[in-house]
Amino acid sequence: EREYLLVFQNNHELRATGGFIGSIGLVHVDRGVLEDIDVQTVYDPDGQLKEFIAPPDPLTPITDRWYLRDANWFIDYTVSARKIADFFEQEGGSTVDGVIALTPDVLQGMLEITGPIEMPTYDVTVTADNFAAVTQEQVTYFYDKELNRPKQFLADLTPILLNRVLASEGRDPLAVLGIFTRLLQEKDMLVWLRDEDEAARIARLGWDGALPEEHPGLLSVINSNIGGHKSDQFVDQEIDYRTSVQGDGVVEATVTIRRTHNGPTEALPLEYPDGENPAYKDNVIYQRVLVPAGATLLEARGFTPAADVPRHTFEQLPVELVADPDVAEWQRTQQAHSSGTVVGREAGYQTLANWTITKPGETTILFYRYRLATKVAAPNFVDPAKTFSVYVAKQPGDARSTLRVEMRLPDGSVLSHTVPQDGITQTAQNQVTYRGNLTRDIVIGGVWTKN
After folding, report:
1. Which of 92, 131, 208, 235 is the most exposed place for a label (fewest CB within 10 A)?
2. What predicted TM-score, i.e. pTM, was given to this entire model?
């Protein structure tokens, strides 16, 4: 018999591992059979937390304590999942065998398998096409205000969905497998298991939300919405990543991140209370850009000063906050750069962190230039062909990022046999450009030879 904690992450309000945790579900499985599922708003267990734990500093504008709902702070999902499981226990829950994170895209994918589901209590029929709009209406505005259980719609829908998916006789099993494989590869679904052997199998499949170990050309842009409401559903992000290998093997890179808030043109036709329409809310983001360890930051600009970030005012707590050891270790690595950027370490990489606020209808542009710590060895007589690549890791839950990568080698070099096959343009013998949607992790590279 096993117990798993489902964590529903709303990617309209992005966090490091996929989105704000609004609901959780405890699943009981006996010999592979779903016995029971209990879905509830995260605020119910959070209200039982007796310890006063200090949150990571970037969360302090919106909370004076750390709770389960904000526990997915760490970029590496295996770290965040352990923290979620710990909070669940501290808030009166059981010791679970695993934590499975889901964005709304997972439930939408399940609806592709099951077909429409009638919910007569709510007078709606839920389909894969209308799931997002119906859920937002029911969870945010149409719930019973006297019972005050805004997540009840999700609590009622989830067990029906799970049972129908598990009892999907007559459906093509390969099609079902394909949907879940896509959701896992695109990081809309992340899996952490307590058993080490089982966790290792999940890691080999790449489904545990961990980053690759020390890739010399890694880039990942991780956005955490801190008081920006559900505005991420309207924000397009363009990532432009350029690497240039000098003649002496030194590698310089630039990253330009362009964020456009399309709220005024994409606003949903829903009746919101005054001042509550997320399409017209500022998108407030604490952004961590992961680059290879030891990189030297040369230039950074375009971000919002921390002093300009809106902060809630909280009453004085009755007790002193307790330091979480993982948070304390994370914060120990955070150092202020002369540009105002916070340079830190996380998940085996270096982080370049800043605040960025994008107002409705506007665009913000952040720019970084840095030098890698390790030189690249050029082809030579003994070893006439080298490989050169970059690895771009997608943020879980992010559905609106595009990617442009430019790789340039020293003059006299030839870059051939490039990957991936789609999206690559050879702009010169020693230079290639890739363009595409960032829907999953991607490696871009080729074979480096000399003329």
Report:
1. 92
2. 0.96
